[in-house]
Amino acid sequence: MKKITFILFALIAGTAFGQTATSATATAEIITALKIAKDTDLNLGTIAPKSDNTSTFIIKTDGSVDVASTATDMDATGRSAASFTITGEDGETFALTVPASVTLSGGSGADMTLTLSHNLAATSNAFTSGSATLNVGGSLALASNQGSGTYAGTINVSVDYE
């Protein structure tokens, strides 16, 4: 009886502690890295403020001047909206970070605020054929008798997959 109990115990113990080999597969899908490249700077051309009043100058995202502008358009040479090419994985969505405004400084007068506008949504933009174009325009607020000179500022744009 002791032999049968020992054999039975050995069979049960072997079954209870036995393990089978198994495996897992490791996979990774790599998509195209996001890239953003500036194609064109935002250039408002040469403009003149109203001498006795504040005024605005508006450049649309297609580079044209908005008729609501109250500053005098002096010279359109080189005028353009900013343009960026964004590349990534076809069909994936991305989000943009574009500042609401940028300060322009460097002339002989007070700094000016350029309120920015752009042609893409802040989120849920989808790549078509692996690229998208971001155009940036804006509305420049000029003080009455704004000092002359060249004013400049930097527009920092970023893009991330969603």
Structural class: mainly beta
Give the biggest sheet: 6 strands, antiparallel
CATH architecture: Sandwich
Average of per-residue pLDDT values: 90
Distance between the termini: 70 Å
The CATH topology turns out to be Immunoglobulin-like
Output the CATH class name: Mainly Beta
Q: What is the beta-strand fraction?
A: 35-45%
- Order of helices and strands, N to C? HEEEEEEEEEEE
Q: List low-confidence stretches.
A: none
Helix count, DSSP H or I runs of 4 or more residues: 1
Give helix % range: under 10%
Summed up, the domain count is 1
| Total strand segments | 11
Estimate the global geometry from the Cα principal axes. elongated
Computed Rg: 31 Å
Describe this structure as you would to a colleague:
It is built from one helix and eleven strands. With 162 residues, the protein is mainly beta. The longest helix is centred in the first third of the chain and has 16 residues, at 2-17. It is elongated and about 90 Å long. The mean pLDDT is 90.
Helix/strand layout:
Elements lengths: L1 H16 L17 E6 L5 E3 L6 E5 L12 E4 L6 E6 L5 E5 L3 E4 L7 E7 L6 E2 L4 E12 L15 E4 L1
Antiparallel strand pairs: 1-5, 2-4, 3-10, 5-10, 6-9, 6-11, 7-8, 8-10
Can you summarize this structure?
This protein has 162 residues and is mainly beta. It has one domain (34-161): Immunoglobulin-like.
